[in-house]
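User: My instructor asked us to take a sequence, write out its structure as tokens, and then describe one feature of it. I'm not sure where to start. Here is the sequence I was given:
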Amino acid sequence: MAAEQHSITTVYILGIESSCDDTSCAVIKNELLLSNVTANQSIHQQYGGVIPELASRDHQKNIVPVVDATLKKAGVTLSQLSAIAVTRGPGLSGSLLVGLSFAKSLSLALHIPLVEVNHMQGHILAHFVKEEDDTMASPTFPFLCLTVSGGHTQIVKITNHLQFELLAETEDDAVGEAFDKAAKILGLPYPGGPLIDKYAKLGDAKKYKFPMPQLKNNNYSFSGVKTAFLYFIQEQTKQNTNFIEGNINDICASYQAHLIKYLLKNLLAVSKETGIKQIAIAGGVSANSGLRSELELLGKKHHWQTYIPKFEYCTDNAAMIAITGYYKFLNKEFCGLEVTPLARYSI
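Assistant: Let's start with the prediction itself. The structure tokens for your sequence are:
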């Protein structure tokens, strides 16, 4: 294999991420990020959500130029690559298939190993991506990670770079879905989560109250919260047709504060049960300013060491796939060309 020609101290990994609507590619040299290029898809905004068929078509158009731009930006040639790391799942089947098929072809053509990556593990290990002159510390093991996105809400225990244990999760919808659904109810454009965060900064977080589900094993449930929010808005707009426009800041502040309180309440419970005070967040919702600030406050109160990712590593990106692929490469965890996409892929 060509990878055997590389010293273990000089490993170049090409990472490919295509689980949803972002086509992303990254190159790392060991843990050092050399380039990370992402092509976004704006077409979904007019539909209020991601259309799977349109997403996969755009991935097909974007993947070659994105990979080419990534290699050029990194100053790395194909012949220097040690392995190809690619998202296997979870995600949209059609989108995953594009990235995985391209990665297989490249692996076969270059005679280098193929490494399949769990998307959610990638989000967690994004904390270990290094940049030039980077002073941010990485989590020490073991640590807990609250992974929050449009499709997942989980509390995971990480013992080492490749050992993950799911301790709690949502039993229905994810918190990102709870944000986006509320935004749609309020008439905000997609994606609505960032807009709720924007309006929340100007509102009264204590003005409105919403139910707090109580589940066993510190699991989450957001379907009831979404329904309660819908009924609340419907009732208020019956009494005042301008209720949303006149109270948008307070509505967003109250709803966001409620979701964050719920997330951190269960995280605190898991921390107490495990005795682990190394706490991280990851995933798209970890970009939420309210969650980031409240985590820091809770961390100071309970003497946690908290780890908050840079904004560029919160949303889907290939740097997190490349770094995960790097650790799996060191452990010789390769896969064959028969590997297929997994829309559902447990951590």
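For the description part of your assignment, you could build on this observation: The chain is about 40% helix and 20% strand. Try explaining in your own words what that tells you about the chain.
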